[in-house]
Specification:
Pathway: Siderophore biosynthesis. This is Ornithine monooxygenase. The chain is α/β, with parallel strands linked by helices. The chain is built from 13 helices and 19 strands. It folds into 2 domains: about 250 residues, FAD/NAD(P)-binding domain; about 130 residues, 3-Layer(bba) Sandwich (FAD/NAD(P)-binding domain). A hairpin with a 4-residue loop joins strand 15 and strand 16. The chain is globular and about 75 Å long.
Length: about 425
């Protein structure tokens, strides 16, 4: 069986950027055999939140490569040039392309690596391969849509699987109900609810705000309740000094800060990334409620300072028990459908790597995103997008993606060279004996 230097699980922006980095390094005599496995049937990036008029919240300069190699073929600028839209884009006078266009850019970049990516395969487990007293390789097992299991061997692994939908505890008992949606599958499923009269949107961030506006524009007669614990919708702070926390050198600062102090840093800047929509979007929502006042109607409601205590699936809808934090009282409301814009958790990789846990200590990572392991475990396992606690708030964003892949690639090259040296030493020892 062929042995790869690296297998990547997932082929979203992080691993596309890594593929580009490794390909460019290969061109300067640093070869590495790599392969990626993606469970989606083709490339797609947040496909179910590809809403009309939705724009990026990060500059196009923080694309897959520019901060690492501005001369790369894979810059967003070169993508525009190849698509013959560069001058038109310049005329827009913006740093923030539509989400649809950026998705097209990512798909364009991903297409360069169709030869080394298996789409439509879901990785089901990663197993250790022993050589004597050492774990020398990893066996990656995946299953395709025909239920055929594929096995591949690798010296290193990078896990970039994004987040899994976070379902608040009070919604867990009804999470399988067809009337409960998560933003992760919003567009795919909302068309099934065109008949609803009353819908709840739970959340305070960009996704909740975008979904509220999409529902408002999609359905004329629907009643929408926007429910959140916060007193108001707070805009993201994208001012220059605050934005410095997304610079790559801030990653060094966070990582080198004592563990006890990292939480303070993350908490100080939490609203730069979470529960903080764009100001323009907030103004649009405010205008919707204002125009209702002008018209004297109460079609939509902003239930601020309300916490969902309990939910129950009934034949006539989803029943909410809401705690009104303003008046310290409870109320019961029934909705035909519910959209949870409640974010994601990013620890699913632990389930995927469960067979390896005896060798991975506490799953902590070094500065180069490599999971720390026992000495007898030789493969390198890297995490992308799951190291916010150790590397800062930018870890799940595009901001550091390009530079991060260079750091991972360098560590990978060290692993490859070390493996070659060990093989040479074993060959010499065998010859002498």
């Amino acid at each position: 069986m062929k042995i790869f230097d690296l297998i990547g699980i997932g082929f979203g922006p992080s691993n596309i950027a890594l593929a580009i980095t490794l390909e460019e390094k290969k061109q300067v005599d640093c070869p590495a055999e790599f392969f990626f496995i993606e469970k989606q049937p083709s490339f797609a990036w947040h496909a179910n939140m590809m809403l009309d008029n939705a724009h990026m919240q990060v500059s196009f300069l923080k694309d897959l490569v520019t901060t690492r190699n501005p001369a790369s073929h894979f810059t967003f600028i070169n993508y525009l040039h190849e698509k013959r839209r560069l001058q038109d884009f310049i005329n827009l006078k913006t740093f923030f392309p539509s989400r649809r266009e950026f998705n097209d850019y990512l798909a364009w970049a991903a297409a360069h690596f169709d030869h080394c990516c298996a789409y439509g395969e879901e990785v089901i487990e990663v197993l250790p391969e022993k050589l004597g007293d050492e774990i020398a390789l990893l066996r990656v097992r995946s299953r395709d849509k025909w239920q055929v299991v594929h096995e591949r061997l690798t010296r290193s692994l990078v896990v970039s699987i994004g987040g899994q939908p976070r379902i608040p505890d009070c919604f867990v008992p009804i999470r399988e109900d067809a009337r409960v949606l998560h933003s992760n599958d919003y567009l795919k499923r909302i068309k099934q609810h065109a008949h609803v009269r009353k819908i709840a949107v739970v959340g305070a961030g960009q996704s909740a705000s975008e979904i509220f506006m999409d529902l408002h524009q999609r359905f004329n007669s629907i009643q929408i309740d926007l429910i959140m614990r916060a007193r108001s919708i707070k805009p993201s702070d994208d001012s220059p000094f605050v934005n410095e926390i997304f610079n790559t050198d801030f990653t060094d600062f966070v990582f080198n800060t004592p563990v006890q102090e990292r939480e303070t840093i993350l908490g100080e800047f939490w609203h730069t990334n979470y529960a903080a929509p764009d100001l323009v979007l907030i103004e649009q929502i405010y205008n919707v409620f204002y125009q209702q006042k002008v018209a004297g109607i109460n079609q939509h409601r902003f239930l601020r300072r309300h916490a969902v205590r309990k939910t129950k699936a009934q034949s006539d809808g989803i029943q909410f028990t809401l705690h009104d934090l303003n008046n310290d009282c409870e109320k019961t409301l029934i909705y035909d459908a519910v959209v949870l814009a409640t974010g994601y958790h990013r620890d699913h990789y632990k389930s995927l790597l469960a067979p390896l846990m005896p060798y991975l200590k506490d799953c902590s990572v070094n500065r180069q995103y490599r999971i720390n392991s026992v000495p007898s475990f030789k493969p390198a396992i890297f995490l992308q997008g799951a190291c916010e606690g150790s590397h800062g708030l930018s870890d799940t964003l595009l901001s550091v993606t390009a530079v991060r892949t260079a750091e991972i690639a360098q560590e990978l090259m060290n692993v490859i060279n070390q493996s070659k040296n060990n093989q040479s030493q074993r060959s010499v020892t065998s010859a002498l004996t």
